[in-house]
Protein backbone atom coordinates (compact mmCIF):
# COMPACT_ATOMS: atom_id res chain seq x y z
CA UNK A 1 0.00 0.00 0.00
CA UNK A 2 1.43 3.38 -1.04
CA UNK A 3 2.11 5.86 1.75
CA UNK A 4 1.10 9.04 -0.07
CA UNK A 5 1.37 12.63 1.09
CA UNK A 6 -1.48 15.04 0.19
CA UNK A 7 -0.62 17.12 -2.87
CA UNK A 8 -2.69 19.89 -4.47
CA UNK A 9 -2.58 20.16 -8.29
CA UNK A 10 -1.07 23.66 -8.35
CA UNK A 11 1.61 22.68 -5.85
CA UNK A 12 2.42 19.57 -7.89
CA UNK A 13 3.01 21.69 -10.99
CA UNK A 14 5.23 24.10 -9.03
CA UNK A 15 7.37 21.24 -7.70
CA UNK A 16 7.70 19.69 -11.15
CA UNK A 17 8.78 22.95 -12.81
CA UNK A 18 11.33 23.63 -10.06
CA UNK A 19 12.67 20.09 -10.55
CA UNK A 20 13.10 20.53 -14.33
CA UNK A 21 14.36 24.11 -14.27
CA UNK A 22 18.06 23.23 -14.44
CA UNK A 23 17.57 20.35 -16.84
CA UNK A 24 15.84 22.01 -19.77
CA UNK A 25 15.85 25.30 -21.66
CA UNK A 26 13.47 28.04 -20.54
CA UNK A 27 11.44 27.63 -23.73
CA UNK A 28 10.98 23.91 -22.99
CA UNK A 29 9.97 24.68 -19.42
CA UNK A 30 7.37 27.18 -20.64
CA UNK A 31 6.00 24.57 -23.06
CA UNK A 32 5.65 22.01 -20.26
CA UNK A 33 3.96 24.58 -18.04
CA UNK A 34 1.49 25.42 -20.80
CA UNK A 35 0.66 21.78 -21.61
CA UNK A 36 0.29 20.77 -17.99
CA UNK A 37 -1.78 23.86 -17.26
CA UNK A 38 -4.66 22.22 -19.13
CA UNK A 39 -4.44 19.21 -16.83
CA UNK A 40 -4.30 21.33 -13.67
CA UNK A 41 -7.33 23.30 -14.84
CA UNK A 42 -9.20 20.08 -15.62
CA UNK A 43 -8.45 18.70 -12.15
CA UNK A 44 -9.59 21.82 -10.32
CA UNK A 45 -12.52 23.06 -12.40
CA UNK A 46 -13.87 20.00 -14.23
CA UNK A 47 -13.37 17.24 -11.63
CA UNK A 48 -12.86 19.14 -8.35
CA UNK A 49 -9.75 17.06 -7.61
CA UNK A 50 -7.87 18.91 -4.89
CA UNK A 51 -5.55 16.05 -3.87
CA UNK A 52 -3.62 14.15 -6.55
CA UNK A 53 -3.36 11.16 -4.18
CA UNK A 54 -6.84 10.31 -5.47
CA UNK A 55 -5.88 10.34 -9.14
CA UNK A 56 -6.74 7.12 -11.03
CA UNK A 57 -6.14 5.62 -14.44
CA UNK A 58 -9.77 6.27 -15.29
CA UNK A 59 -9.28 9.96 -14.46
CA UNK A 60 -6.33 10.10 -16.84
CA UNK A 61 -8.38 8.54 -19.63
CA UNK A 62 -11.23 10.98 -18.99
CA UNK A 63 -8.77 13.85 -19.21
CA UNK A 64 -7.41 12.56 -22.49
CA UNK A 65 -10.90 12.50 -24.00
CA UNK A 66 -11.66 15.97 -22.59
CA UNK A 67 -8.46 17.39 -24.04
CA UNK A 68 -9.02 15.66 -27.40
CA UNK A 69 -12.41 17.35 -27.78
CA UNK A 70 -11.61 20.76 -26.26
CA UNK A 71 -11.70 23.91 -28.40
CA UNK A 72 -13.27 22.05 -31.29
CA UNK A 73 -10.73 19.22 -31.15
CA UNK A 74 -6.93 19.02 -31.24
CA UNK A 75 -4.70 17.29 -33.77
CA UNK A 76 -3.31 13.81 -33.00
CA UNK A 77 0.24 15.17 -32.85
CA UNK A 78 -0.86 17.76 -30.27
CA UNK A 79 -2.65 15.11 -28.24
CA UNK A 80 0.45 12.91 -28.27
CA UNK A 81 2.74 15.76 -27.22
CA UNK A 82 0.47 16.71 -24.33
CA UNK A 83 -0.08 13.17 -23.08
CA UNK A 84 3.64 12.36 -23.31
CA UNK A 85 4.38 15.42 -21.18
CA UNK A 86 1.68 14.37 -18.73
CA UNK A 87 3.30 10.94 -18.41
CA UNK A 88 6.64 12.54 -17.49
CA UNK A 89 4.83 14.75 -14.96
CA UNK A 90 3.03 11.79 -13.34
CA UNK A 91 6.26 9.80 -13.24
CA UNK A 92 7.88 12.64 -11.28
CA UNK A 93 4.93 12.76 -8.86
CA UNK A 94 5.42 9.04 -8.20
CA UNK A 95 8.94 9.77 -6.95
CA UNK A 96 7.68 12.28 -4.36
CA UNK A 97 4.79 10.11 -3.12
CA UNK A 98 2.16 12.36 -4.65
CA UNK A 99 0.30 9.78 -6.76
CA UNK A 100 -0.05 5.97 -6.67
CA UNK A 101 3.00 4.07 -7.88
CA UNK A 102 3.02 3.00 -11.56
CA UNK A 103 0.20 5.44 -12.35
CA UNK A 104 2.34 6.87 -15.18
CA UNK A 105 2.00 3.54 -17.00
CA UNK A 106 -1.73 4.25 -17.34
CA UNK A 107 -1.21 7.49 -19.28
CA UNK A 108 -2.22 6.53 -22.82
CA UNK A 109 -0.78 8.38 -25.81
CA UNK A 110 -1.87 7.93 -29.44
CA UNK A 111 0.34 6.08 -31.90
CA UNK A 112 0.99 8.26 -34.91
CA UNK A 113 1.62 7.35 -38.49
CA UNK A 114 5.17 8.38 -39.42
CA UNK A 115 3.96 11.40 -41.42
CA UNK A 116 1.60 12.65 -38.69
CA UNK A 117 4.46 13.61 -36.42
CA UNK A 118 6.23 15.74 -39.02
CA UNK A 119 5.31 19.39 -39.40
CA UNK A 120 6.04 20.42 -42.98
CA UNK A 121 5.22 24.13 -43.03
CA UNK A 122 8.21 26.01 -44.36
CA UNK A 123 9.22 29.19 -46.16
CA UNK A 124 9.79 28.25 -49.78
CA UNK A 125 12.99 29.41 -51.47
CA UNK A 126 11.21 31.53 -54.10
CA UNK A 127 9.16 33.30 -51.45
CA UNK A 128 12.23 33.89 -49.28
CA UNK A 129 14.16 35.34 -52.20
CA UNK A 130 11.25 37.60 -53.16
CA UNK A 131 11.08 39.01 -49.63
CA UNK A 132 14.84 39.51 -49.38
CA UNK A 133 14.93 41.20 -52.81
CA UNK A 134 12.19 43.57 -51.65
CA UNK A 135 14.07 44.36 -48.46
CA UNK A 136 17.34 44.97 -50.33
CA UNK A 137 15.61 47.47 -52.59
CA UNK A 138 13.26 49.27 -50.20
CA UNK A 139 14.38 48.55 -46.62
CA UNK A 140 18.07 47.80 -46.88
CA UNK A 141 19.84 47.07 -43.57
CA UNK A 142 16.64 47.59 -41.60
CA UNK A 143 15.90 45.51 -38.52
CA UNK A 144 13.49 43.20 -40.41
CA UNK A 145 16.06 42.79 -43.18
CA UNK A 146 18.76 41.76 -40.71
CA UNK A 147 16.50 39.29 -38.86
CA UNK A 148 15.25 37.48 -41.94
CA UNK A 149 18.57 37.52 -43.79
CA UNK A 150 20.39 36.01 -40.81
CA UNK A 151 17.77 33.31 -40.26
CA UNK A 152 17.60 32.35 -43.93
CA UNK A 153 21.36 32.45 -44.49
CA UNK A 154 22.50 30.76 -41.28
CA UNK A 155 19.54 28.49 -40.36
CA UNK A 156 19.72 29.88 -36.81
CA UNK A 157 16.88 29.58 -34.34
CA UNK A 158 15.17 32.80 -33.33
CA UNK A 159 16.69 32.55 -29.85
CA UNK A 160 20.18 32.46 -31.35
CA UNK A 161 19.50 35.53 -33.47
CA UNK A 162 18.26 37.38 -30.40
CA UNK A 163 21.27 36.27 -28.31
CA UNK A 164 23.92 37.80 -30.57
CA UNK A 165 26.01 40.74 -29.36
CA UNK A 166 27.97 43.18 -31.49
CA UNK A 167 31.16 41.55 -30.15
CA UNK A 168 30.01 38.16 -31.45
CA UNK A 169 30.37 39.45 -35.01
CA UNK A 170 33.89 39.28 -36.48
CA UNK A 171 33.90 41.23 -39.75
CA UNK A 172 37.54 40.42 -40.55
CA UNK A 173 36.79 36.69 -40.41
CA UNK A 174 33.21 37.01 -41.66
CA UNK A 175 31.70 34.87 -38.91
CA UNK A 176 29.47 34.91 -35.84
CA UNK A 177 30.05 33.36 -32.42
CA UNK A 178 26.85 31.85 -31.03
CA UNK A 179 27.10 31.62 -27.24
CA UNK A 180 24.92 30.31 -24.40
CA UNK A 181 24.54 33.06 -21.77
CA UNK A 182 21.61 32.03 -19.54
CA UNK A 183 22.58 34.32 -16.68
CA UNK A 184 21.99 37.40 -18.83
CA UNK A 185 18.74 36.26 -20.46
CA UNK A 186 20.06 34.79 -23.73
CA UNK A 187 20.08 31.00 -23.33
CA UNK A 188 20.39 28.69 -26.32
CA UNK A 189 17.96 25.84 -26.86
CA UNK A 190 20.72 23.23 -26.65
CA UNK A 191 22.68 25.16 -24.01
CA UNK A 192 26.48 24.75 -24.32
CA UNK A 193 25.93 22.15 -27.05
CA UNK A 194 24.38 24.91 -29.14
CA UNK A 195 27.53 27.02 -29.10
CA UNK A 196 29.32 27.24 -32.45
CA UNK A 197 30.96 29.59 -34.95
CA UNK A 198 28.91 30.31 -38.08
CA UNK A 199 30.56 31.43 -41.30
CA UNK A 200 28.95 34.31 -43.19
CA UNK A 201 28.93 35.18 -46.87
CA UNK A 202 30.47 38.45 -48.05
CA UNK A 203 26.97 39.78 -48.75
CA UNK A 204 25.70 39.09 -45.22
CA UNK A 205 28.88 40.55 -43.70
CA UNK A 206 28.42 43.75 -45.70
CA UNK A 207 24.79 43.87 -44.60
CA UNK A 208 25.81 43.60 -40.94
CA UNK A 209 28.53 46.22 -41.43
CA UNK A 210 25.97 48.66 -42.85
CA UNK A 211 23.46 47.89 -40.07
CA UNK A 212 26.03 48.52 -37.34
CA UNK A 213 27.42 51.66 -38.98
CA UNK A 214 24.18 53.32 -40.05
CA UNK A 215 21.03 51.79 -38.61
CA UNK A 216 21.67 50.04 -35.31
CA UNK A 217 20.37 52.00 -32.27
CA UNK A 218 23.34 52.63 -29.98
CA UNK A 219 21.89 51.04 -26.85
CA UNK A 220 22.79 48.36 -24.34
CA UNK A 221 20.53 45.84 -22.65
CA UNK A 222 19.76 45.65 -18.93
CA UNK A 223 22.96 43.67 -18.34
CA UNK A 224 25.22 46.21 -20.03
CA UNK A 225 25.68 44.05 -23.13
CA UNK A 226 25.52 45.42 -26.68
CA UNK A 227 22.95 43.37 -28.63
CA UNK A 228 23.72 42.99 -32.31
CA UNK A 229 20.07 43.45 -33.24
CA UNK A 230 18.43 46.15 -31.17
CA UNK A 231 15.37 48.28 -30.80
CA UNK A 232 15.61 51.82 -29.38
CA UNK A 233 14.93 50.20 -26.00
CA UNK A 234 17.51 47.40 -26.06
CA UNK A 235 17.58 43.73 -27.01
CA UNK A 236 14.72 42.23 -29.00
CA UNK A 237 11.89 40.70 -27.00
CA UNK A 238 11.79 36.90 -27.22
CA UNK A 239 8.80 36.90 -29.57
CA UNK A 240 9.95 39.77 -31.80
CA UNK A 241 11.84 37.68 -34.40
CA UNK A 242 8.72 35.58 -34.98
CA UNK A 243 6.52 38.69 -35.17
CA UNK A 244 8.88 40.13 -37.79
CA UNK A 245 8.76 36.93 -39.85
CA UNK A 246 4.96 36.66 -39.67
CA UNK A 247 4.79 40.24 -40.89
CA UNK A 248 7.28 39.85 -43.74
CA UNK A 249 5.89 36.59 -45.13
CA UNK A 250 2.44 37.99 -45.92
CA UNK A 251 2.35 38.51 -49.73
CA UNK A 252 0.77 41.95 -49.39
CA UNK A 253 3.68 43.10 -47.21
CA UNK A 254 5.98 43.11 -50.23
CA UNK A 255 3.40 44.33 -52.73
CA UNK A 256 2.36 40.95 -54.11
CA UNK A 257 -1.32 40.16 -54.77
CA UNK A 258 -3.22 38.31 -52.08
CA UNK A 259 -3.83 34.66 -53.09
CA UNK A 260 -7.16 34.88 -51.23
CA UNK A 261 -8.20 38.05 -53.05
CA UNK A 262 -8.51 40.01 -49.82
CA UNK A 263 -8.36 43.78 -49.75
CA UNK A 264 -5.39 44.78 -47.54
CA UNK A 265 -7.28 47.91 -46.47
CA UNK A 266 -10.03 45.76 -45.01
CA UNK A 267 -8.11 42.62 -43.96
CA UNK A 268 -7.42 42.31 -40.23
CA UNK A 269 -4.32 40.21 -40.95
CA UNK A 270 -2.80 43.11 -42.89
CA UNK A 271 -2.11 44.81 -39.54
CA UNK A 272 1.32 44.10 -38.03
CA UNK A 273 -0.08 42.85 -34.74
CA UNK A 274 -2.44 40.43 -36.53
CA UNK A 275 0.00 39.15 -39.17
CA UNK A 276 -0.05 35.63 -37.69
CA UNK A 277 -3.72 35.39 -38.75
CA UNK A 278 -2.76 35.52 -42.43
CA UNK A 279 -3.04 32.01 -43.93
CA UNK A 280 0.02 32.75 -46.09
CA UNK A 281 2.34 33.90 -43.29
CA UNK A 282 4.78 31.55 -41.55
CA UNK A 283 6.77 31.53 -38.31
CA UNK A 284 10.51 31.74 -37.64
CA UNK A 285 10.65 27.96 -37.37
CA UNK A 286 9.27 27.67 -40.89
CA UNK A 287 12.10 29.92 -42.10
CA UNK A 288 14.61 27.59 -40.43
CA UNK A 289 12.97 24.52 -41.98
CA UNK A 290 12.86 26.16 -45.41
CA UNK A 291 16.49 27.25 -45.20
CA UNK A 292 17.65 23.78 -44.15
CA UNK A 293 15.73 22.21 -47.03
CA UNK A 294 17.16 24.79 -49.46
CA UNK A 295 20.72 24.02 -48.35
CA UNK A 296 20.14 20.27 -48.74
CA UNK A 297 18.61 20.78 -52.18
CA UNK A 298 21.70 22.81 -53.10
CA UNK A 299 23.89 19.74 -52.45
CA UNK A 300 25.31 20.97 -49.16
CA UNK A 301 26.25 17.73 -47.32
CA UNK A 302 23.83 16.83 -44.55
CA UNK A 303 26.62 16.70 -41.95
CA UNK A 304 27.53 20.32 -42.79
CA UNK A 305 23.90 21.41 -42.52
CA UNK A 306 23.54 19.48 -39.26
CA UNK A 307 26.53 21.24 -37.67
CA UNK A 308 25.67 24.70 -39.00
CA UNK A 309 22.00 24.48 -37.94
CA UNK A 310 22.82 22.74 -34.64
CA UNK A 311 20.42 19.86 -35.20
CA UNK A 312 21.12 16.12 -34.95
CA UNK A 313 21.13 14.01 -38.14
CA UNK A 314 18.03 12.00 -37.18
CA UNK A 315 16.04 15.11 -36.26
CA UNK A 316 17.28 16.80 -39.42
CA UNK A 317 16.05 13.95 -41.58
CA UNK A 318 12.68 13.54 -39.84
CA UNK A 319 11.60 17.08 -39.04
CA UNK A 320 13.46 19.43 -41.37
CA UNK A 321 14.40 17.76 -44.64
CA UNK A 322 11.42 18.38 -46.92
CA UNK A 323 12.95 16.97 -50.09
CA UNK A 324 10.98 14.25 -51.85
CA UNK A 325 12.47 10.78 -52.11
CA UNK A 326 12.85 11.26 -55.87
CA UNK A 327 14.69 14.54 -55.32
CA UNK A 328 17.09 12.83 -52.92
CA UNK A 329 17.66 10.06 -55.46
CA UNK A 330 18.49 12.52 -58.26
CA UNK A 331 20.95 14.33 -56.02
CA UNK A 332 22.67 11.05 -55.13
CA UNK A 333 22.86 10.24 -58.86
CA UNK A 334 25.06 13.33 -59.44
CA UNK A 335 27.70 11.95 -57.09
CA UNK A 336 27.63 8.47 -58.62
CA UNK A 337 27.82 9.30 -62.34
CA UNK A 338 31.61 9.11 -62.55
CA UNK A 339 32.02 5.93 -60.51
Keywords:
DNA polymerase, domain 1, 339 residues, 3-stranded antiparallel beta sheet, hpI Integrase, Chain A, 13 helices, 2 domains, mainly alpha
Short synopsis of the structure:
The protein has 13 helices and five strands.
Polypeptide structure, described:
With 339 residues, the protein is mainly alpha-helical. The protein folds into 2 domains: 9-106, DNA polymerase, domain 1; 125-287, hpI Integrase, Chain A, CATH 1.10.443. 48% of the residues lie in helices and 4% in strands. The protein has helices at 9-20, 26-46, 57-69, 76-95, 125-138, 143-154, 158-163, 202-215, 240-248, 284-297, 302-309, 313-320, 325-336; strands spanning 169-170, 175-178, 196-199, 230-231, 234-235. The strands form 2 sheets. The protein has a 3-stranded antiparallel sheet with strand order 1-2-3, with no helix packed on it. The chain is globular and about 65 Å long. The termini are far apart.
User: What is the third-level CATH name, the topology of the largest domain?
Assistant: hpI Integrase, Chain A
| Coarse structural class | mainly alpha
- Largest sheet entry: 3 strands, antiparallel
Q: Strand order across the biggest sheet?
A: 1-2-3
Which stretches are low in confidence, meaning pLDDT under 50 for 5 or more residues running? 113-119
Strand content: under 5%
CATH level-1 class of the largest domain: Mainly Alpha
CATH superfamily of the largest domain: Intergrase catalytic core
Distance between the termini: 69 Å
Amino acid sequence: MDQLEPLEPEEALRLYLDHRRREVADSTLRSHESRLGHFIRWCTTEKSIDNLNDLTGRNLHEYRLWRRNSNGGIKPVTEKTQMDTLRVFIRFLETIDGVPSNLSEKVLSPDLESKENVRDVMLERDHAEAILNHLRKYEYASRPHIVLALQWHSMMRRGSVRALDVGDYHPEDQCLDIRHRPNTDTPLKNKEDGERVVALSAEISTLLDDWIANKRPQVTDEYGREPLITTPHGRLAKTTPTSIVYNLTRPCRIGEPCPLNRDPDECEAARYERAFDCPESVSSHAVRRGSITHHLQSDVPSEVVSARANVGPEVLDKHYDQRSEKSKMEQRRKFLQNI
